[in-house]
Design brief:
- With about 180 residues, this protein is mainly α.
- The chain has eight helices and two strands.
- It has a two-stranded antiparallel sheet.
- The radius of gyration is 19 Å and the shape is globular.
- The two termini are about 25 Å apart.
Length: about 180
Amino acid sequence: MASTAVPVSLPVPSRRRLFASMMYESILLFGIIFLVGLIFDYATKSYHALYLRHSRQFILFLAIGLYFMMAWRRAGQTLPMKTWYIRLETTHGTKPGYMQLLLRYLLMWPIPLACALFIEYLSSLTGYASTDLLIVAAPFSIFIWSWFDKDGLFMHDRLAGTRLVDLQARITQQAAKA
């Protein structure tokens, strides 16, 4: 049986394509968060956003993690990653295991959360409530590490032993051979 692993020589997708994939992903995540939040509110009969706030956040954290880990484990891709021809794999070009995916998911959070904390501090320091609007940039703070990484990887990919590969490059290579 032939191996389905993508060659390790595939490049990392451009930041522009990664950003576009993240924007698309945020639309899907909005739906997941809304649905899980609605089920949580219905099940707990909570009629106020601050009621059981930490429980809700934990359930949403688990739901988002489950979404990503299921998609990454099954095909190495979420729907936006398929659209943009991006796939997650290990640094050796194989499918990541569950523990590696869990580690990647957990390591995705520190930089955006630190950025959100900085934005909250900046808002309280300046006294301008509108500074809170900068929170929309927090998820994209994960790109900062990739500018300094020798291979252009995100920090969580570097630490988890995973990488995102550009499948469009494989299509281009195959077309050049034909």
